[in-house]
């Protein structure tokens, strides 16, 4: 497989919900039973270390999943809880795990949008934000948290959400990348919750790092992480080229672009695809390549600038 191949998505993930699996020494995972077009087979929570452990992404508001996580660490001490971002399939269960273990919660901060909401915008139902979440310890890019036999470095990866963090384990060349990079599908970037400009910058940041085995919030682990990130960058640039190709034929709206670009898409993902196109258009408008009347919004019409 060369660097010029298309993104090699891997949808082979036989892990069953509620079962703890050691995927590498010092890294276990437990799948939540919340499958959907957005979450694939469900949210994956990770247990880092042995004896005194950290839990990454306790998952949605799901009592059975919390019980499975706590059962997986029976006889051990949970010393830290980490949260990659504040979507409702990743952070709400944090309260249950904290109550059961007393462990402090580490994350970038409460949920926030990537930019202010325009007056003409309605709430985006796909965002699924957890607005009740607040960490005990706010982490910034480069902050390091050490536990018993492990050391995690916060890597700022805004784009999918403004407060998204990955957690790198540099000595092991592992990176817990949340929803920023997924092996089964591209990530949703839906303004104003997300930002394509930030997302692409964060991909560049990951590609420049040394970690080469990624553990994602959904789906299987991703080997050769940096090369996979380069695939994703090319994939997004190809999507941008498709948008520009359609706009070269004349002014149009986002639903028309989605029909032209996303051939054979699952109908349940059409709205999300529209927001992904909007994220690209925001970037193109900011760069002066594309023009629109007023703010770049989901209901707007777009044309080539100049």
TrEMBL record:
<dbReference type="InterPro" id="IPR036388">
    <property type="entry name" value="WH-like_DNA-bd_sf"/>
</dbReference>
<feature type="domain" description="Metallo-beta-lactamase">
    <location>
        <begin position="42"/>
        <end position="218"/>
    </location>
</feature>
<dbReference type="Pfam" id="PF17778">
    <property type="entry name" value="WHD_BLACT"/>
</dbReference>
<dbReference type="InterPro" id="IPR041516">
    <property type="entry name" value="LACTB2_WH"/>
</dbReference>
<protein>
    <submittedName>
        <fullName>Beta-lactamase</fullName>
    </submittedName>
</protein>
<dbReference type="InterPro" id="IPR036866">
    <property type="entry name" value="RibonucZ/Hydroxyglut_hydro"/>
</dbReference>
<feature type="region of interest" description="Disordered">
    <location>
        <begin position="101"/>
        <end position="136"/>
    </location>
</feature>
<dbReference type="InterPro" id="IPR001279">
    <property type="entry name" value="Metallo-B-lactamas"/>
</dbReference>
<dbReference type="InterPro" id="IPR050662">
    <property type="entry name" value="Sec-metab_biosynth-thioest"/>
</dbReference>
<feature type="compositionally biased region" description="Basic and acidic residues">
    <location>
        <begin position="116"/>
        <end position="134"/>
    </location>
</feature>
<dbReference type="Pfam" id="PF00753">
    <property type="entry name" value="Lactamase_B"/>
</dbReference>
